[in-house]
Specification:
CATH topology: Nuclear Transport Factor 2, Chain: A
Helix content: 25-40%
Distance between the termini: 39 Å
CATH class: Alpha Beta
Strand content: over 45%
Length: 128
């Protein structure tokens, strides 16, 4: 059962990544819980509304979100934690941020049959 749940949430996360690239408001709203928080690599925390505003105004614009390997999942009956590495290219407030790699950790909860992301954290991978 937990493998099936993990697979569904991994699919939801892949869809969430696409919606961030496409700035798809409907998918964004469906896949992010009202209490959603993102902690970005600078340590800044954004609410669901703040993040959506940044995306829709173009202050944050992803050019690339590309997985670097598989997504790992720890699944319970109503909580799933995902971890994966991703290459990112984006623009923030008009400044191009070149391609870099980050670890992503996302926590999903079951909201009455819909898996929604409640917490995300991205941590930059430093060159060795």
């Amino acid at each position: 059962m937990t493998d099936d749940v993990a697979g569904r949430v991994i699919e939801a996360e892949q869809e969430r990544i696409r919606c961030l690239l496409d700035v798809d408001r409907g998918t964004y709203d469906r896949l992010h819980a009202e209490e959603y928080r993102l902690c970005n690599p600078t340590g800044t925390v954004w609410t669901k509304a703040e993040y959506l505003d940044l995306l829709t105004t173009g202050r944050v614009a992803y050019r690339k979100l590309e997985l670097n390997g598989d997504m790992d999942a720890i699944a319970g009956t109503d909580v799933v934690v995902l971890r994966y590495r991703c290459f990112i290219e984006l623009t923030v407030d008009g400044a191009d941020i070149p391609r870099h790699e980050a670890w992503h950790t996302d926590v999903y909860t079951d909201d009455g049959g819909t898996w929604r992301c409640v917490w995300s954290q991205a941590t930059g991978v430093m060159d060795a």
